[in-house]
Structure formats: C-alpha cells, structure tokens
C-alpha cells in the first residue's frame, strides 16, 4: 500500500548548519509514526518540511507516491497535511466554535447579504467534537477557559473535520500533566482509528509507546534508529533516547583506560 507520506534520505541545511541529514521514514493511513528526540535533534526541522514551512535541500519527499516540494503551509494543507503546533493557533477570547471555524466560517445568503451562519457553525462544531468523543459543556465558552488538553483535542477534531489525511502533532503533551496527556493520547488514537496517518512529535517515550506503530529516533539532525513497534520495547526505546549506547561505550572506554592504567 502506498504510504500517505514518505521521506527518503531527506536533508536540510541553514548556511553552514546541518539541521537534518539523511532522514527516512513513512506515514501510513491508520497508523502513528512517532518522531522522538531531545531539543536540537531535528524534530522541528522535519515537521516544518512536512508542513510546507521550509523546503528540503536533499532527498525525496513523497505524498501518496508523488514527489512534492511545498512552497507554503497552504499547499501542504491542500494535500491533506494538517499540523497542530505546540503553541496552538487559537484566539483565547473567542468561543470554541469561532476558533473551530477560524478562516473557514459557514455563511448564509449571497453577495452583500451574506452573513455568518452561527447556528450551523455551533451545531457542526458540537457534532465534530462529539464524533471524536469530546464532550464540551458549551461551544460558546471562550477557548481560553479550556484546559491545555481540551484545546489540543479541539485542534485535532478541527483537522479531522476539515478533511486532513495526515495529522502532524508537535509535542501535544509537552506542557500537560499525566491525566491531561492521557486524554490527548486517547484522541490521537481516535484519529488513527478513523484512518488518518498521524505524525506524533515528542521527547517522551512513555507518551509515544502506547499509541505509536513505528518510531524514528533523531539526534543532532540524524536518524539514531528507525523501528517498527514489534522490534523494540519501551525499556529499549527509553534507553536509546537516554543515549544508553553512548553511555555503555563511554563506560567501556573508562574501564579499558582503568585497566591500562
């Protein structure tokens, strides 16, 4: 089956700085590809390429088998790639339904008599959230009154409603407590079960492991490893994230130095 997204030996340089080097991965419909790495690992550069913010310098970026080079986020969105950033592009004082439809508001009438269809917007928002299993008290409430987890869930439901095929989530659980993070991961699984390909960016293997189907580990702009879930367990994933192999090599070197001494 053709992947929704495939990157092959993709690279990006900013002047003399190599931000990404020879990174390859795939995103399939109905699966979660998790990109793990610490700050500066290259996660942001990778998602900016996928989201159409930046263009790659080397390698191939394929969407449903066809090579692409997006010149704007709008182009990526038109191809069904929706990105939900960590800082969430919401207007806190506006209601949930106004934020849900921001820039795509339904209207009634025509020409100079066209007006915002508030009733349809409210009902559609409520149904779209309900379909994802999100039960908000009132879609009229300002989005700023929602918890961080609820805001992430509204953003996920919005992307699903507007026809995303691929959903890129940038550190959606980073600023959340355990319970809120669990809620967001539940909706990530919901999006996956509805047939979307999900790219989950995180630095937390404990958040990644329950929902992911494959893992891409990045370090200093290069792939540290790429695994199907069946090939790696949580302790090993955590060990690799913590630089376990490097620590073992260092320990071995120190032991040898001690013996030599």
Description:
This protein has 261 residues and is an alpha/beta fold. Helix content is 36%, strand content 25%. It has one domain (5-90, 164-260): P-loop containing nucleotide triphosphate hydrolases (Rossmann fold). The strands form three sheets. A six-stranded mixed sheet has the order 6-9-10-3-11-12, sandwiched between helices. Strands 2-1-4-5 form a four-stranded antiparallel sheet, with helices on one face. Strands 7-8 form a two-stranded antiparallel ribbon. A hairpin with a 2-residue loop joins strand 4 and strand 5 (66-67). Helix 5 (148-161) packs parallel to helix 6. The longest helix has 17 residues, at 244-260.
Mind telling me the CATH class?
Alpha Beta
- What's the end-to-end separation, in Å? 58 Å
Q: What oligomeric arrangement do these chains adopt?
A: single chain
Instruction: Bin the helical content.
Output: 25-40%
The number of domains: 1
Strand order of the largest sheet: 6-9-10-3-11-12
As for the CATH topology, it is: Rossmann fold
**Relative strand content:** 25-35%
SSE string, helix = H, strand = E?
Answer: EEEHEEHEHEEHHEHEHEEHH
GO molecular function: ATP binding; ATP hydrolysis activity
Protein name: Sugar ABC transporter ATP-binding protein
InterPro entries: AAA+_ATPase (IPR003593), ABC_carbohydrate_import_ATPase (IPR050107), ABC_transporter-like_ATP-bd (IPR003439), ABC_transporter-like_CS (IPR017871), P-loop_NTPase (IPR027417)
Pfam families: ABC_tran
């Amino acid at each position: 089956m053709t992947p929704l997204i495939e990157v092959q030996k993709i690279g990006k340089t900013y002047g003399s700085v190599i931000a990404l080097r020879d990174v390859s991965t795939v995103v399939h419909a109905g699966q979660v590809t998790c990109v793990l790495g610490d700050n500066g690992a290259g996660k942001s550069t990778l998602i900016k390429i996928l989201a159409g913010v930046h263009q790659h310098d080397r390698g191939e970026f394929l969407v449903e088998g066809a090579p692409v080079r997006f010149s704007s986020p709008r182009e990526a969105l038109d191809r069904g790639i929706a990105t939900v950033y960590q800082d969430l592009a919401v207007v806190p004082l506006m209601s949930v339904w106004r934020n849900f439809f921001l820039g795509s508001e339904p209207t009634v009438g025509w020409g100079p008599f066209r007006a915002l269809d508030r009733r349809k917007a409210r009902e559609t928002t409520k149904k779209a959230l309900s379909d994802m299993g999100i039960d908000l008290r009132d879609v009229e409430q300002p989005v700023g009154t929602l918890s961080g987890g609820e805001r992430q869930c509204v953003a996920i439901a919005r992307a699903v409603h507007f026809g995303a095929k691929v959903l890129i989530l940038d550190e959606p659980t980073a600023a959340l407590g355990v319970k809120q993070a669990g809620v967001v991961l539940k909706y990530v699984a919901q999006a996956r079960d509805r047939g979307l390909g999900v790219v989950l960016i995180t630095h937390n293997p404990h958040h990644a492991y329950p929902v992911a189907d494959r893992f891409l580990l990045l370090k200093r702009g290069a792939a540290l490893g790429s695994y199907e879930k069946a090939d790696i367990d949580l302790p090993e994933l955590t060990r690799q994230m913590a630089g376990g192999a490097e620590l073992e090599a260092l320990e071995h070197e120190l032991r040898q130095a001690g013996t030599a001494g």
